[in-house]
Write the structure tokens for this entry.
Amino acid sequence: MPVLNSDNGRDKRFFVPEPKARPGDTPNFSQLPIPPAGLVARPQTSASPENLRDLPFELIRTLNEDGIPEGEWQPDVPNSIVLKIYEYMCLTRIFDTKMFRAQRQGKTSFFLASRGEEALGVVPSIALRASDMCFPTYRQVGWLLARGYPLVKLINQIFNNNDDPLKGKQLPVLYSARDFGFYSLSGNVGTRFGHAVGWAMAKAYRNSDDIAIGFIGDGTTAEGSFHEALTFASVYKAPVILGITNNQWAISTFTGLATNQDTTFASKALSYGIPGLRVDGNDALAVYSVLEWAADRARHGHGATLIEFFTYRSGAHSTSDDPERYRPKDEASLWPLGDPIERLKQHLLANSEWSEERDDEIQKVLDKQVTESLKEAERIGVLGESKPDVREMFEGVFKEQDWRVKEQLKELGL
Ligand SMILES: Cc1ncc(C[n+]2csc(CCOP(=O)(O)OP(=O)(O)O)c2C)c(N)n1
Ligand SMILES: [Mg+2]
């Protein structure tokens, strides 16, 4: 057996994977083969999983270097919808940037942005039906924005002020909006797949053709609950899409500690007998297309699909993180699959009546929208200036008051 790692000069057989580059090193993405757009064949949605076994090792891409879609995975989507996707991705970025700053100004205790992953909140929100349900991660505020959830309500939740729609029950950014198809965010990573599969099974039991979509991160696939959920999803052919956001990092832990680098996250689907797709997560059209494919399968009784969205977390994990301590400063800007917003803009410029002038205009409109909502929420109160009545924190969770709730109320003298 080869000696693989050394520790304090003493060679050891024990292997601990290391990322290709650390702070001060030149970013190195040479181990990532990036195939040209349009190469992967699109199988029928009714195809049997045994005929789909190559897919987890491909990378589905549609937009080429000039922003022109190529190949069989091009979605049949009107330009007005592409424009809508683009606008909401831009809104997500503006919202994130301003709220990150608001945390630095002490207006909230915590914030977490989705920079570089905007397509993965917005596109599923638009591609799926209003009656489907998303079991999101904390990096998918774009789902809510694209469904018209009021910005000021989001900010009230982040400020935990008097008008916080969740009345102080959740940490900032852990939104919950059932009427918008957005299941309560859970701070415990790894819960999403189990919840999504259970919800989907219940829908199938009731003969509905609604489907669930669940998301977890690359790091979270190392949790046991990932495998439990896949077992249920595959055994019961649950109408569910299971999305892994492989953004290369789990806080400061690189992707190679969550899965062996000789395989892909999508390939985990193989042992469960379900299709596993791997898609360029920074190509909004490819993302739309694979979601349509998997949704069609789920609605027609062909069961679950696992999708690895291959992307890069180009910002910090959260306001509590400093990525310069564990990865090269310029790694994000050198990500070989580019920026999802820039790539879709390039597509719009190449393909329609879109222009730089119209783009400037829309950025201004979106910016104003966020600024005004922020001001309105600030009037209600930033962190600590106003808060919901503490009693409300205990309401709306249990149908009948649990003994713990009663004890906690007593502790508070209520
Ligand atoms: C069960 C559980 N363990 C640990 C944490 C702390 N934690 C929060 S986010 C995170 C990293 C998750 O990384 P990944 O799954 O790759 O998602 P990403 O943040 O990159 O989208 C960890 C360890 C948690 N919230 N819940
Ligand atoms: Mg991650």
